[in-house]
Specification:
The protein has 161 residues and is of the alpha+beta class. The protein contains five helices and five strands; from the N terminus they run αβαααββββα. 25% of the residues lie in helices and 35% in strands. A hairpin with a 5-residue loop joins β4 and β5.
């Protein structure tokens, strides 16, 4: 790694920086606009009327207005968590236990949280370790809307810096 590459990386977020039980509230939140919500559901051809029809859910317990495609919600939570959890990642190894807990509508703002569930040596690699995270996101009203686990291969500082 050249010196200029090293200068671009954060001082934390290496494998050694994570401890089981550690919790992180990520600094940024993001509002899901109509453009990304409608575009992705149509791009993925998720034709459920709750995504495509503004008035379909008017009298529904899910609330009025179109729903945000669930995988966009998951992606937003994982993305908001990434600066703190994956800046030194070598590979994304998996996403499991996805749970969509409450509806998200266009205009909702999502914030993300993380807990470190496991930190283990990487098989056949001395330059990285495997971290399993639990991520969750909540709306502006503090309702948890998404939970999921993510496993990441992360560089060891002692090898890469």
């Amino acid at each position: 790694m050249s010196r200029s590459d090293a200068d671009l990386l954060g001082a934390t977020g290496w494998f050694e920086d994570f401890a089981v039980g550690q919790r992180i509230r990520h600094a940024r939140a993001a509002t899901i606009d109509e453009v990304e919500g409608a575009y992705l559901s149509k791009l993925a051809m998720n034709t459920a009327q709750g995504h495509w029809n503004e008035h379909y859910l008017t009298d529904s317990p899910l609330g009025g207005g179109r729903l945000v495609f669930g995988l966009l919600t998951a992606s937003m939570v994982f993305g908001l968590a990434s600066q703190d959890t994956a800046e030194h990642a070598l590979a994304e190894l998996g996403c499991t236990a996805l749970r969509f807990r409450a509806p998200v509508h266009h205009g909702d703002t999502i914030e993300a949280f993380t807990e470190v569930l496991a930190a283990t040596d990487a098989p056949d690699r001395d330059d990285a370790g495997v971290i399993r995270f639990k991520h969750w996101g909540r709306r502006q009203d503090e309702t948890v809307v998404f939970e999921g686990e993510r496993t990441v291969l992360i560089k060891r500082k002692k090898h890469w810096s």
